[in-house]
Structure formats: C-alpha cells, structure tokens
Specification:
Strand 5, helix 7 and strand 6 form a beta-alpha-beta unit. This protein is α/β, with parallel strands linked by helices and 286 residues long. Helix content is 47%, strand content 16%. The two termini are 21 Å apart.
Length: 286
C-alpha cells in the first residue's frame, strides 16, 4: 500500500526508520530486531540507503523485501541521487517495481569525499521529477524544521521544499529535532507556502552522549537548555542517560500527538528496545 493512502486512512501514522547492517552476516541476524519492530505494528518502516553501492549488492532492497514479504509491513526505500546517474536510478527502480515496492523516500544524499558525485542530479526535487515521469511510486521527501545545513535562509528552504512537493512528493518526513516549537513554526510555514501534504515529525531518542554529538554534527539540530542539562547531568551514567533520554523523547511525542501532528517517524537506530519502550509509552495515545 502507498503511504499516502495510509495517511488518508489514519490521523496519526506511526513509522520507524532502520538501516541495513554493513555486513552480509549481520543481515542474516537482523530478524530478531525486525521481529520486535514489526510486532509493534508500525504503519511503515523506512530503510536507509548507502551511496556508492550498485543495484546488485544493495542491502537496502534486500531488507525492504524482507520487511514486506516476511513481516508484512510496508517498506519505504530511501533512494539518493547525488552519486548516481539516470542509468543507475533506472536499475534501482526496475528492481523496486519487480519486487512490488511502491514507496520511495527521494533524497539528494549527503556529500561524501570517498564517493564521487555525478552531475545528472543535484537536488532531491530533480530525482522526484524523474521518478514521477518513469514509475507510479508514492514519493516521500525529507524536510528540516530547523533548515537544511546548506540552506541560505528560511525563505530559500521553504521554496526548495515547495519544489519537492510540486515535483510530486506526497508525504514529508522531518529530520530530528529536540524542541517541538521549531516543528510547530515549520508546520505553519509549510501551510503558508501552500504545502498541504502530510508532514510527519522525526524523533530520535538519545540514549548516549556520543550519539547526540554525532547527530547534531550531521544534521545541525539545536539543543534546548533543558535537554543540555540532562546530557550534562547523566552523561557519565549510562543507565540514567538512557532513562532520561527516553523520557525526553516520550514527552516530545506526547506533546506532538496532543497537537494533532500527522504522525510520528521514529529513528530507531536499529534498537528494538527503544522502539518498544516508546510504543508502550504512547499505546493509549496514538
């Protein structure tokens, strides 16, 4: 089922993000994680995509097939374009179509000095336009409540996001954030800009200090003062930081749901314990 149809059927959609294991041996052992995640009844699971691989050795597609056909949950395949040309994209999409995978999260992809860039796609909107011309995928796009790190300003950010939607993005999944006020302002900006597709906030429970530094560096999310106090107080106590991080994420999610957001997209980091605790915490709320 296309995730745009899921959004039409449900007010608040619950989804997870996972990443493919780096080693083939680990791919065989991911079933324990999937057993728990899929048992939580998410509406879909998105699978991240590593640039530089070919369609013949792409673990993203293998994992998406497993989610769809062994666990009967709808997969969304991330597809980046900065390091691929049209021929590469055609090879990927041909496999997706043949496997009955209907949903794609179209992304530019992060710049990587170890992976050469190609010049046919410079922006996610160009990939979305190309995919829409070729196949009948439901396309999701990424959005950034605090602006993409490369954006010149907020006006430019909203113009580029509108291009994605005009090109055919039917659902938007947000980058992580730690202050809900950023998301509410962003959501209002979207409506002012004429963006009327579902906009789902992305939440990542932070359960260790190294993780928070890595994610803030990658996506530029700001840290509210009360969140910084939690990190500083408990960073040397692993279990305390886990509990505090989970509580903070739950408080974010409950507030977002109370304010009528279109859903929750949980960045699980392949940790089923985190996903299970979050789902238990909102069991009677979603």
């Amino acid at each position: 089922m296309k995730i745009s149809e899921i959004h039409k059927q449900k007010k608040s959609v619950l989804s997870f993000e996972i990443f493919p294991p780096k080693k083939d041996s680990e791919l065989k052992n991911i079933d324990e994680t999937l057993e728990i995640l899929c048992g939580l009844n998410p509406d879909f699971i998105s699978v991240t995509f590593g640039a530089g691989g070919s369609s013949n050795n792409n673990k993203t597609i293998e994992l998406a097939k497993k989610i769809k056909y062994e666990y009967h949950v709808e997969p969304v395949v991330h597809l980046t374009c900065l390091c691929y040309d049209k021929k590469d994209i055609d090879e990927f999409t041909k496999i997706l179509v043949s496997e009955g995978i209907e949903n794609v999260l179209a992304l530019r992809g992060d710049r990587n000095p170890n992976v050469p860039e190609k010049d046919e796609f410079q922006h996610a909107s160009e990939l979305i336009t190309y995919l829409k011309e070729k196949e009948e995928f439901c396309i999701a796009g990424a959005c950034y409540p605090e602006c993409h790190p490369e954006s010149a300003n907020r006006v430019s950010e909203m113009r580029n996001l509108k291009k994605k939607v005009d090109a055919g993005a039917e659902v938007l999944l947000s980058q992580l954030f730690f202050d809900n006020d950023y998301f509410y302002r962003f959501e209002e900006d979207c409506r002012i800009a004429g963006i009327d597709v579902p906009v789902t906030p992305g939440i990542m429970p932070v359960i260790n200090a190294a993780q928070i530094q890595r994610m803030v560096t990658l996506c530029g999310a700001s840290l509210p003062e009360r969140f910084q106090k939690i990190i500083h107080k408990y960073e040397d106590n692993k279990q305390a930081l886990f509990d505090a991080g989970m509580s903070y994420a739950l408080s974010q999610i409950i507030d977002l749901l109370a304010n009528g957001v279109d859903g929750i997209h949980l960045y699980t980091m392949n940790n089923p314990v985190v996903a299970k605790k979050i789902c238990e915490g909102i069991r009677n709320i979603v």
